[in-house]
Amino acid sequence: MARIHPAAAVDARAEIDDDVEIGAFSVVGPDVRIGAGTVVGPHVVLTGRTSIGRRNRFFQFGSIGEIAQDRKYGGEPTTTTIGDDNVFREFVSIHAGTAQDRGDTAIGEGNLFLAYTHVAHDCVVGDRTTFSNNAQIAGHVVIGDYAVLGAFAGVHQFCRIGVHAMLGAYAVVLQDVPPYVTVAGYPAKPHGTNSEGLRRRGFTPDDVRIVRQAYKTLYRDGLSLEDARAALARTAAGAPVVEPLVAFLATAGRGIVR
Prior knowledge:
- This protein has helices at residues 195-200, 205-219, 225-236, 243-250, and strands at residues 3-4, 9-10, 15-16, 21-22, 27-28, 32-34, 39-40, 45-46, 49-52, 57-58, 63-66, 79-82, 87-88, 93-95, 104-107, 112-113, 118-119, 124-125, 130-131, 136-137, 142-143, 148-149, 154-155, 160-161, 166-167, 172-173, 181-184, 189-193.
- The chain is an alpha/beta fold.
- It has an eleven-stranded mixed sheet with strand order 1-4-7-10-13-16-19-22-25-27-28.
């Protein structure tokens, strides 16, 4: 049975699964669904057409599912979808989608959002990402699995951040960041691979070496982007670790940081 503090304001139409805890002065709207085992701290606002999975934890003063900060938004019935096992620390804000795009803001599983982080409308965040304090992403951004955003990092709308990429503190990202790449600065520029992150996640020494060589092909060998893509495609035929990089480069975007 859900444990709801008497000082919380939970709409009777909200769907609350078993073993959910909702703290004092939190607000839960009528179109919110909360999965089993989720803990909502005090002073949290869960609103909009928001679906929340299991075992999530929301710390105080978060705002989840609010309408988009977009002049084009006209009250359309858009949504926010959150998977399982995510942590949202103090003052995190996640906004719903817009009808001009996918209509949904989607958060995967096992993500960690530190204090004051922000996910804007129509973003897609994968699994096991880390948003350090004050990292913020604009609308229509896609964040790949295991990506790490350093403190105060900012990502321009419509950018893509590849799997296992890392944004340094205060990085201002104006173009796509390929998988495995570390970027820093304003505007963000490539500064090698996220080798330490790969080791921590169980990549073999050979895989780390191959990723470094792929980075060299893309950034250090003086090749055009087209020639680098062709070379990486040949490498991927015998090295599956390069396949996410090849797939990323094959998809049109804002151009990659280079």
